[in-house]
Amino acid sequence: MIWLQFAILLGAILIGARMKGIGLGVMGMIALALYLFLFRMRPAEPPIDVMLIILAVVTTAATMQAAGGMDYMVRIAEKILRSKPSMITLMGPLVTYCFTLFAGTSHITYSLLPIISEVATKKRIRPERPLSISVIAAHLGITSSPISAATAAMITILAGQIEMIHILKICIPACLIGILAGVAVVWKKGKELENDPVFIEKMKDPEFAKELDAENADNNKPLPKGAKTSVIIFGVAVLLIVLVGAFPNMLPHFEPGKANLSVNANGTIKMAAVIELVMLAAAALMLLLTKTTTTAIAKASLFTAGAQAVVSIFGVVWMSATFMEANEAVIEGGLGDMVRAAPWTFSIALFVLSMLLFSQAATTKALMPLGVLLGIPPSSLVAMFPATNGDFVLPGYPTLLAAINFDRTGSTHIGKYLINHSFMIPGLVSVSVSVAAGFLLASIFW
Fold first, then answer.
1. Cβ atoms of residues 15 and 277 within 8 Å
2. Which residues sit opposite 162 in a β-bridge?
3. Which of 143, 243, 312, 355 has the most C-beta neighbours closer than 10 Å?
4. Which residue positions does the secretion signal occupy (predicted)?
5. 219 pLDDT higher than 70
6. Rounded to whole angstroms, what are the CA distances from 17 to 4, 6, 412, 432?
7. How many Cβ atoms sit within 10 Å of the Cβ of residue 42?
8. Cβ atoms within 10 Å of 39's Cβ, excluding its own
9. How far apart are CA 24 and CA 319, in angstroms?
10. What is the model's pLDDT at position 139?
11. Measured CA distances, 430 to 90, 302, 319, 343 (Å)
12. At how many degrees (to 10) do helices 301-326 and 2-19 cross?
């Protein structure tokens, strides 16, 4: 029976992934309905905490975007990237990683990808090199960010066993090491641009050649007056969340009682609630101080992307959690001995599931509780956290597709066999090295 139920789960994920957008969420609900009414499975608790965090963080990031803060950050990043064009393969991924680390979502990097492609092309560096590792670095930033939904899910699942500072001091250096390893493998990847037959053919078109080296005048557009203010407010909010995560005693403590979405049974405030509170308060300050309209926020691209993410996570995580809880004994019996003997093998399961879910938060919420059930130490689970970045394997994630479209030379591509694409090698190397570095750092700092 478990194999039939698993086939339904896998089918819903595959069909939903092909539908894109909210497809994963709505297909997850169909599978959940089958579980409930056909197999009489008890529904698990829906991932309300993760959904609320995504809503709060994305709303604040969208407010910053509407206030012009995103454009302000992109201009700073552009100056950095253009200052050392010969080092774009190194600078590109470091900048996209920092952007995601700061904002908690990789969707913030869309504005950087065309700049990376342009700088590389004008320097006649194969754009595939910096673009591929920059996308991977942006994804790894999610499992390093103090305000990402994935990090908050980890803190919620391991409540009482770890604090935010444990994740940050392991995952930030581990992911940076992984990114540097990815940079090394793409540094000379593929033919040099001037020797690439596709690029040579494109350069025969005089209009293409002229447009390729044309100067971009977008920087001449004036920024809204509140652009810099919105970035400062967002930065202070992120810093406050990090401080609270590092020093939880800063928060008020209440009498022990019944737990809810905001407070633990021992009377401490949940980190998820802190993130939601601080982020939305920051959004309110931006609205007051920058005179940004709520209509502009609702129209921001980040807000739309966040809404899709909420629906997707709602359906797919609720479905996955219901399957896991209903088959807990069977799964534990089948995997328990192997995982306890070699905890690192659990990272393979995380990676494979993230390939299908296209979400670090959804993978974390769906599978990390199983890691706890199997008795894997919290330090090992944190070390394996970067393994949830398998969303590059099937080239359907928006940032991958955006990078391909922004590369006018055609060097960044999806291969004939689908998975032999530009992001596969840097992705596999970066994630593998990040997990290995995570285990090493956990053994030192834990």
1. no
2. 159
3. 143
4. none
5. no
6. 20, 16, 22, 24
7. 9
8. 14
9. 10
10. 95
11. 13, 26, 30, 20
12. 170
Q: In angstroms, rounded to a whole number, what is the distance separating the alpha carbons of residues 25 and 421?
A: 27
Identity of the residue numbered 291: K
Cα–Cα distance for residue pair 386/394, rounded to 1 Å: 17
Q: Looking at this protein, which amino acid is placed at residue 264?
A: N
CB of 53 within 8 A of CB of 310? no
Dist CA 383 CA 171 (whole Å): 7
Whether the CB-CB separation of 248 and 152 falls below 8 Å is answered with: no
Q: Are 146 and 164 in contact (CB under 8 A)?
A: yes
Using a 10 angstrom Cβ sphere, with 0-12 exposed, 13-18 middle and 19 or more buried, the burial of residue 126 is: buried
Residues 159-210: tens digit of each pLDDT: 878 888 899 999 999 999 999 999 999 999 988 888 888 888 888 888 777 7
Token pair belonging to 9: 């789960």
Token pair recorded at residue 5: 């139920």
Per DSSP, 41 falls in state P
**In angstroms, rounded to a whole number, what is the distance separating the alpha carbons of residues 350 and 25?**
19
Amino acid at site 52: L
CB 392 within 8 A of CB 424: yes
Residue 213 has pLDDT above 80, yes or no: no
pLDDT in tens, 22-33: 888 899 999 999
Place of tokens 């209009």: 207
Query: Which one, of 422, 310, 372, lies nearest residue 159 by Cα?
Result: 372
**Residue 297, C-beta contacts closer than 8 angstroms, at least 6 positions apart:** 59, 62, 63, 66, 283, 303
CA Rg value for the chain: 22
Share of the chain above pLDDT 70, in %: 98
First to last CA, the chain: 41
Q: Rounded to two decimals, what is the model's pTM?
A: 0.85
> How far is the C-alpha of 385 from the C-alpha of 431, rounded, in Å?
10
Q: Encoding tokens for residue 22?
A: 């909210």
User: What are 190's two structure tokens?
Assistant: 């593929």
Return the exposure string of 185-195: e unless at least 16 CB atoms fall within 10 Å of the residue's CB, then b.
Answer: bbeebbeebee
Per-residue model confidence as pLDDT tens digits over 58-73: 899 899 999 999 889 9
* DSSP string over 74-103: HHHHHHHHHHSGGGHHHHHHHHHHHHHHHH
Q: How many CA atoms lie within 13 A of 423 on its CB side?
A: 30
180 CB-near residues (< 8 Å, 6+ apart): none
| φ/ψ bin of 148: left (φ > 0), alpha (ψ from -120 to 50), beta (otherwise) | beta
